[in-house]
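Appendix B, example 12.
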Amino acid sequence: MRQATPTEGSVRAMDGALGPIPAVCLHDHLDGALRPATIVALAQDVGHQLPTTDPVALGQWFVDNANSGSLERYLTTFAHTTGVTQTAAALERVAEEYVLDAAADRLLHTEVRWAPEQHVTRGLTLERAVDAVQKGLARGVAAVKASGGHISAVQILCAMRHLNNSREIAQLVLDRVRAAAGTTPLGAVVGEPEPGSVVAFDLAGPEKGFPVSDHREALDLLAQNLVPVTLHAGEADGPESIRDALVAGRALRIGHGVRLLENDPDATGALSRWVRDRRIALEVCPCSNLQTGAISHWGDSIKDHPITQLHRTGFTVTLSPDNRLMSATSVSHEMSLLISDAGWSNRELTDIQLNAARAAFVPRAYQEWLCERIEEACA
């Protein structure tokens, strides 16, 4: 596996060798995208003990500890990022910085996910936590636009698979989606979402042993009210987990999904056909998948990663970093690895950005606008 080197301050940004390929990011965790220097500053504010207070060394610590080959061990690194983001001010700061880093990564649109229930140990309510992230994302969007750029940023709220709060989080998502309906800002691109608004629900955390079907009440509520759902599946568990996400969860997108072909190498089985023919987007995160051992069935390099087979056999593949800090990565870095290590072309990279634009949880008019900007830049 190729090891990336984290940098002081911002997580890894543009590699600089791709040319003008703007991107749409569908799978990015807010608590996995903090700047190392910001973690140090926030830890000092609340007295949180870190492994080191040197930003460069801390960034490397996150990468080293995420390279475990296990999703469960990978997830332990989040104790520090969630530990320093238990106040409204901290959440606002990291959300704003997230947007600025995303803009530096040439993102036109990003859907950042996080679990509000993991940020209430110091007295925040779920509602105030979501308000804080919305405010930070909106500030970041405003700053990018004030400098002549464009980005849109929305929230996906996660419930944790191994906990029992999914019904409450689903209701929170439903309330926020209803509140955001019809609030497009004056002068915005047609269909552009309100900055920082909540658009969908996810289940995150340990996958194996914690099926989607355990959260049926929450998922029924969302389905009955036509609220979009994307679910982590096919990362730490196999194809049956993906089936569970589609059947019990009625997922419109699958977070990761890289183990879809584990028992179906020719992609001829019923589950594979359903995912491909229905154009269910797979939110693939190659560097993260290497770290957690999600693709050990195929190998341990970007060249071995099933993303290439999935894309070239007609699946709706999208590309995301998952956790920029833990993988010292970005969308552009993931693209550069596909070129250098897996033989992808710029046209293929453009095609998966178009996939992401069409799968985004935004109105169709804005999807089309994003596609037009991608095609124009890559013409």
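Residues 11 and 177 are 30 Å apart (CA to CA). The chain is about 45% helix and 10% strand.
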